[in-house]
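Convert to structure. Protein one:
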Amino acid sequence: MAVEKRPGYLINMDAQAPNKLFHEWAAEGKYLPLPLAIRPEFTHGDSRFDFRLEQADKVRLVEVKGVTLENDGHVSFPDAPTERGVKHLRGLMRAVQSGMEAAVVFVIQMEGAKDFSPADQIHPEFGRALREAAERGVRVEAFDCTVTPEEVRIRGAVPVLL
């Protein structure tokens, strides 16, 4: 479901889309090279993550977050306080500490984002946790999407500003 924020600027508002888009994108080898085993909804410790990606002797846990908050091309997450999001970041940090790879992937549900940053003004604790996660080895990645009334597809990487 796409909405027009301003003339010619579509944003996908389907909350289920980011995980589906990431799964398709990863299965096509566009996130990590193939062969790649993808296991959705994987529990590690006290958290359930969106994906466990397995490649040869490497395992990466991935938490996907959909981004719809935009101001003049700059996008942010979250658009509301998210204790669950903070919990996921802490779980990803523990995964890295245990020897796994971990990433939080922000799927920007619109095209042409200039950059991504945490929405500190909305949830400062999430911003602090995201910066700490990055410092502790969790990959922080953002990708925008091509959005038409008929289709949404991950397009490419967007700079992350922490």
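Protein two, convert as well:
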Amino acid sequence: MLSTGAALAQSFGALARVVPDATRIETRGGHVTLRLGLSQPVPFRVYTLDDPRRVVLDFREVIWDGVPLTVDGAAGVTSVEVDLD
């Protein structure tokens, strides 16, 4: 007998919101850490690109409205951008 009820019950259809108070970029010892607070777990992908060098975090189910994207004091990070396409 095969039971898949638990796996089928989980849905990723709802949109997550960014939690600004739990979101920050920090640098320490030459490493950059992004702490992204979300209202719920969502699927994502992370990859790097060159020219210009950058790290891409791909979230299809996150609402970014009203989130201030700043890099105050984050050495080595020149900008943070959100592409809503």
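Residues 1-9 have pLDDT under 50 and may be disordered. The radius of gyration is 16 Å.
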